[in-house]
What we know:
Structural class: alpha/beta
InterPro entries: SAM-dependent_MTases_sf (IPR029063)
Bound molecules: S-adenosylmethionine
Protein name: Methyltransferase type 11 domain-containing protein
Organism: Triparma strigata
CATH superfamily: Vaccinia Virus protein VP39
Radius of gyration: 20 Å
Shape: globular
Number of domains: 1
Strand content: 15-25%
Oligomer: single chain
Helix content: 40-55%
Number of strands: 8
Distance between the termini: 32 Å
Amino acid sequence: MLLRSLSLSRSRLSTASRDTRRSLVSRSFSSSKEDPPKFDAEMVAVYMKIAEQHTHPKGPWPLMTKAVSEKVGDAPFKMLDIASGMGEPARSIGLALPKGEIIASDVSEDMIVKAEASLKDVPNVTPLLANAEDLSTIDDNSMDIVTCCYGYMFPADKDKALEETFRVLKPGGTLIATTWDRVDMISIAGDIMEAILGHRPPPPPLNPMALSEDGLFESMVVKAGFQNVITEKSTYPFDFGNDHGFQLKCGTLLIKYKIEELGAEEVAEKTFFECVPKYTTTDANGHMILPYNTFQMLTATK
Ligand SMILES: C[S@@+](CC[C@H](N)C(=O)[O-])C[C@H]1O[C@@H](n2cnc3c(N)ncnc32)[C@H](O)[C@@H]1O
């Protein structure tokens, strides 16, 4: 319902001022009956710490920003960022390339509220509530660039999401998307859940590793009509700091609610500190480092 109320008509989306668009988003959210989920300050700090890792020079946000910059040069451009979460990489790209007119979209109302806050100081990026599977508020052939960082793993109909991406891109436009190949946080979470349950649980329905199989995402992109598909891999570290309590919170972030539901905090803590040597190193400052997080960055043209 909220999505419908927020659905700007195509002409409005292309002509409405940034402020008008922002207030449309705000009004719709303030009328929502449900409160967004609440995180205490510590949980927010854990989330922010994990997000901060993606700014590593070999992480996805700098590499995607560089890829867009190489594509557009000094020219003005229109860009849609899909599954922006709290606004990335739209925010990084908007700051680096002020001639870009950028939409930061996400299916989650809660994320769009957070994106609104994080994008306040970036005048060329506008948040939009939109499902990647239905981008009907965006014109055909209207975008020079579509970006998506760690997003295509989640739509129920991934082929539809790629068809929609193809539709909104101009002929000759570029898709730049990152998907996970290896995330040791997920392996740690699997080890902990195995210790709690006595067996390894199946992957969750929203599975960050859903496109990690070699060649799978490329074949889906080609099926959607894209050409000139190029992929590159990058590995970057996660730094969980030197405080044991905070390390535990980072390492169990993905299964926090499951652990609480099962009352399994003690087993989780014991298993975490037993299993981390398999996945981590310690740097000179005593920080716990997960060195091998690996993603694939795919570029393709319409
Ligand atoms: C791992 S986060 C990535 C966020 C951000 N791009 C980043 O790099 O930090 C995945 C995001 O995908 C969004 N998402 C999941 N399914 C979606 C869909 N069908 N359409 C659009 N966004 C979706 C989620 O709400 C979440 O914000």
